[in-house]
Amino acid sequence: MQDIKYSKVCPKCNGTIYYKTIGSYQANKNKNVPCRKCKGIHHSEIMLGRKRCTFTDQWRKNMAISHKKSKIWKMSMNTPEYKEKHRQKMIRMIKENKSQVAFNPKACDVFDFINQKLHWNGLHAQNGKEQVVDVFFLDYYVPNLNIAIEWDEKHHHKSSHRKRDGFKSKIVMDSINCEFYRVDDMSKTIRKIDHLPIDRTNELQQVINEYYETKK
Questions:
Q1: For residue 154, is it within any domain?
Q2: What is the pTM of this model?
Q3: Is 131 exposed, middle or buried (0-12, 13-18, 19+ CB in 10 A)?
Q4: Is 100 domain-assigned?
């Protein structure tokens, strides 16, 4: 039962407002502040019929810059140790089905078409499970041929993302020594980025072109 000494009457509904500590009670006892329920009703009445403003790209950019200038970001979050710890946590959550890997459904349709045309058994997000290499998830991977394909959407053209893509590619190729290809979602072209002698670029490009021809 909450202590009656740390309470006061709501000026709106005459209900009782309880305070957990004497400090919060002392700070609010003489203020004409309603309870949370009455605050919510009042806020809803004020906002009724109003059009909420959307966050602009400039606002988001300013917030990102401000965040990266903060001491918390510089001293703790922007460190290799923190990033690795966060990455391992996300992998664990995905394996425990507490979170999902972001994927491109259209890319998965192309991967299914590649499987069909080339009689491959490539894995992706919508036909089973993405292959995990080190701490990275591959968009598409053919186990028996050791072939990996990454699908690069528009945001992959940003300089910061290109750097992460290069790091991911290096880790994957060093770990499993696979054939590695990247598909540009905007131009629908594929390129080989590994140094192995086998090159399936033309074969895969023909299949991708055929897929988009069927969609016209």
A1: yes
A2: 0.60
A3: buried
A4: no
